[in-house]
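Researcher: Please translate sequence to structure tokens.
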Amino acid sequence: MFIVVTLVADRPSARRDANAGIATFSTPTMVHLTSAFIISTIMSAPWPARFEPGAAGDVVAVAGIVYALYVIRRARDLQAYHAGVDDWVWYFIMPLVAYVLLFVSTLSLAAWPVAPFLVGTATVGLICIGIHNAWDVVTYLAMSDRDE
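Model: Translation complete:
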């Protein structure tokens, strides 16, 4: 994804609002993948009790929820591209759902025995969302000049 974004940045067809598109579609993909790595690190650390990783996970989850809402606002303001239903599902709704699931599961990590499995589900969800969206962005960028 990094290579393709770098290569297409110098194309003559690159539009002025490319930064808004990158901030709306590419950057969140990297944020979701990074969040998954951070959660994996938090959950793998040797904590003395379940409360500490739950609190650290809640910080990541709240930051993810705030960021997902910010990205949704950016998408609504984007002029160059209007997201379709599949874009709304993969880029905006699913990440928000994953971060909310992460928040609920890390909040109840100390008290609910199934919570670690939900943390894992949210983390794998963020990874799958990141992989799908990275592939989607790369495909879009690689094929965008063919239409012009």
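Researcher: Any highlights?
Model: The longest helix spans residues 115-143.
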